[in-house]
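Thread: "does anyone have the structure for this chain?"

Original post by V.I.:
We have the sequence but no experimental structure in hand. Need at least a predicted one for the grant figures.
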Amino acid sequence: MYTDTERCVRAVHSKDARFDGWFFTAVLTTRIYCRPSCPAVPPKVENMTFYPSAAACQQAGFRACKRCRPDTSPGSPEWNARADSVARAMRLIRDGVVDREGVPGLAARLGYSARQIERQLLAELGAGPLALARAQRAQTARLLIETTGLPMAEVAFAAGFSSIRTFNDTVRQVFALAPGELRSRAARSGTSPATPGVIALRLPYRAPLNPSNLFGHLAATAVPGVEEWRDGAYRRTLALRYGHGIVALTPHPDHIACRLSLTDPRDLTLAISRCRWLLDLDADPEAVDEQLRADPLLAPLVGKAPGRRVPRTVDGAEFAVRAVLGQQVSTAAARTHAARLVGAHGLPVDDPEGGLTHLFPDPAALAGLDPEQLALPRSRRTTLTTLVSALADGSLRLGTDTDWEQARTELTALPGFGPWTVEVIAMRALGDPDAFLPTDLGIRRAAEELGLPSTPAALTARAAAWRPWRAYAVQYLWTVDDHPINHLPTEKNREVQP
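Reply from O.Q.:
Generated one for you, tokens below.
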């Protein structure tokens, strides 16, 4: 979009927050870059230039605006709606892969040479992987500076910088303030850390966002010990690169409040990325809802509660295991099976607030489980153990960078994986916005009630008009049934047992 100057200028003059993250406005006279919704008086048109990423702005010598804080914009929705190499690279950079494995590691994961990845990112984002990772390190550093009391040396290395000097220079270049000045400003504004060991931040999103199905689904399917709904927040444990964490996510009208407790602050970037992915916060609801409203049978559902997101997962392997446990059983039964697996194989953790007791077991921990101890039909045991074996040996990968169609092919080849299981994994674990579940019982009931075709083949043909947003259509169709996944949980039912 950044190449359409006229459209960008209109967005800046109208201070349209819907375009935050789509592009950045750089002001030639002040050498500052802003988000489109910056509250400052817009510069003259001849003094504006536009870039596709914050990294491109920084690389061109611009520094971040202190009023609108463009580094806190939602991410571009393009990277979640596409499966090409650039989108997959951006998802990996967002997860901190370049900091941990370097550009060669990023390229190896994508199956390209480092030169090819560099060229593709430069062509589309105006910055290479190192510059994009540097911009993310600067944002992480700012969060740690403003929301924790960590010494600056620890902040530098936790944010991914190789030296304190590089950390100091980058912060000054990007924010036009020294690290100590950023912390002083945060203290004066009342945003300094209130609880030792807890990182509190706001996760931005593009409005509208309807929290009912998003948090309702996560709470209704929560695995005891791993997830819970408490005091208006969805809480869960996180298995991260350097340790584990506990996160509490609370919906608000203009942001998601996020409270993170990490055993190692180096995991902050990854934890934030996982939380944004879980809640689908980089989506563009206006584009999704506009297309779905074009169908007269879907339009009333969209108009009644716009802005529905796809509830995802923090770990693809975890969700795949849970999807198999949930085959042809109720939500309560699926929670019971998962809770038994967690109790037997999950790593125990301490939760100061109580309620959370374990990490969900990773494939390596499940590789040695005895199928005879599973209270499942024999065919389901085979499905589960085959899946776990493929995940543990690396022959099957279900990450944010996974090629969607390749994963579908590999999953379909496993015993016991039918269309429903494959598509629900594609939708919630891999993030494919066009995943569709025509055989799902709730979808078929909704289709019958709305007057849509009810057979899978006919419904799939009708749903072609909803592409590439069929996963969002699923969220709206599920609302036809009065199911707990469609409602924010209340405190009186948050402790419902499976």
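V.I.: this helps a lot. Residues 129-147 form the longest helix (19 residues).
O.Q.: and The longest strand covers residues 244-251.
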